[in-house]
Structure formats: structure tokens, C-alpha cells
Write the C-alpha cells for this entry.
Amino acid sequence: MEEMETFIAGMPKAELHVHVEGTLEPELKFDLAKRNQLDLPYKSADEMRQAYDFDDLPSFLKIYYEGMSVLLTEQDFYDLTYAYLKKVHGQNVLYAEMFFDPQAHTVRGVSFETVINGIHRAQLDARDAFGIKTQLIMCFLRDMTAESAMEALVQSLAYKDWIVGVGLDSDEAGNPPLKFKEVFEAAREHGYLLTMHCDVDQKGSVANIWQTLNDIKTDRIDHGVNALEDQVLCDEIIKRNLTLTVCPISNGYVTPSKKTAEIKAMLTRGMKVTVNSDDPAYFPGYMTENLIATQQEANLTKDQVVQLVKNAFDGSWQQAEEIEAMTSKLSAYVAQ
């Protein structure tokens, strides 16, 4: 077991499902609160962690959005992003696609420009310091209006060269993919790639995944574990060569299990499933911890773990030559 953990820790990796706001560790949250002269309802970082008591998606989102209150300036967003990239560089992550939620900030009076300038500057500095490559995916908040999402899309166009695609996150209950069909059509017309959260064990999960495929026509699916309930849907996902970005440790907090058996089932079926960290400051575990948890719970072979990581490189929104270069590094590591 120790040998497998060491192997996983050293692997070159890619992350396709991480919310940059969800990487806000309690220690940094305290630092930013002090800098911005804000009071937090906790005496220490440990006390804050103990307050992270959630057992479903809505209870998590409540704490998640409260935590964003300390993010006010461009430097705050820079520090947040740089801290995440420094952390995952230490876990041998070569490439990451990061979600960000501009509406969660603009609704608080923080400008779109402030948010994206801070994140982008950190991306450039982390690339220079660590060699880590990153791309940004702008998420719309599904529990806000489609009109608000369209406003965010329009705001993003001035920074289109910094954003590779758009997604949809937040509370899925009562907010099906079809609610945002016109927004996603407009995003596609502007050249953005499309992905969408299909959260785990939600009411109407399978129907929502079908909408994601047939009405939104996304290029990728975030989470999507419930596709296994419909074999025709699984076959269609395979036919379209769609990548699924699954987050086991976070699953274990908001559902009864990490869904690692389901990850193994997807691998066995030939689905392009990947493992990711989601919101690692709230669901404790970055890329290495998520891969180790999946391997141990599902009793994956070394080849299966390698396939999960290869799927992430293959499913990334990079150019073909970049994917080939990173996959070659993975193959060289495995061959050692």
C-alpha cells in the first residue's frame, strides 16, 4: 500500500475540476480578513475547520459562499490562486483547469476585472515559477437567473483570451440545464468550450445529464456519476468521447459515499472518467489524496490509476501537442 501511495504521489497529474474559490484554506482566509479589516466568527483556523459541518450540497454551498466575503481586492484573488498552484505543483500537477464564479463576487460589489486580473496574474507567475500550465473556466451560478448569467458572459468577452470555456455550478435543485440553454448557445458562438455540473444523487440527475448532452451539447460533464443508472446514456457518453470529472472526497461529504466503486465501474466500461479535488479547502484533499482514496477504496490496479490520470490529460482543453507532451511525461514516469 505504501508503495502505491508513493507511486501516486510522484505521478505527473492534471486536474480538470477545481473551484479556485474552493481552495481558500482557513489560514489564508484569516490573513485576508485581517488585511481587509474584517471580523470572522472563529477564533482560529482549527475552529473554522471544525465548523465545516455539511452533509449535502446546500449546506456546503452556504459555508462556501460565506467564505468568499474575504475576497475583495485583486491581490486577494492573486494570493488565493497562487497558493493553490504552489500547493499542487508540490503534488506534481503539470496542468490545471480552474473554475471561477464571477457572479458570486460581482453581486458583492467586486468587479469582474478585479477578480480575473488577480487570478490571471497568479497564473502567469506560477507558470514562470513552477512551470505549471493552467486555463480558466468561467462558471455561471445556476441558482441565479439566466439573465444574470448572460450579463456575466458579456462581461467576460473583454477577457476572452484568458478564458477557455464556461460551466455551470451551484445548487442544481430546480435549476436544470435547460434554464441556461440560450446562455450556453451564446457562449458557444463566442468560441467558448462548454461543460456543466451534473451533481451527484440530485433529483432528476439522469434527465439532467441527458439535457446536458442533447440540449446544451456540452464538450464535457462535471461529476455525472449517475449516468451509470442508464446504460443507454453511458453508451452515448462513450460514443461522444466525453470526459467526466469526478471528485471522490467531496462526494463523501455531500452524499453517503465517495462513489469510488462507480469510478471503477466507469473505467471498466471504457468511459473517460477522471479524478479531481473540487473544493479541497473544504473537502480535505488535493489531487494526490483523491487519487489515493480512490485507489484504496476501489482496489484499483496501477494500470487503472494510470488510466485515470491519462484520461485527465486526454480530456483537457489543451492543444494536441501539449497533451502528447504531458502524456509522454506520464509514460516515462510509469516506465521507470
Summary: The two ends are 19 Å apart (CA to CA). The beta strands are 13-19, 93-100, 133-141, 163-169, 193-194, 197-198, 220-223, 243-246, 272-275.
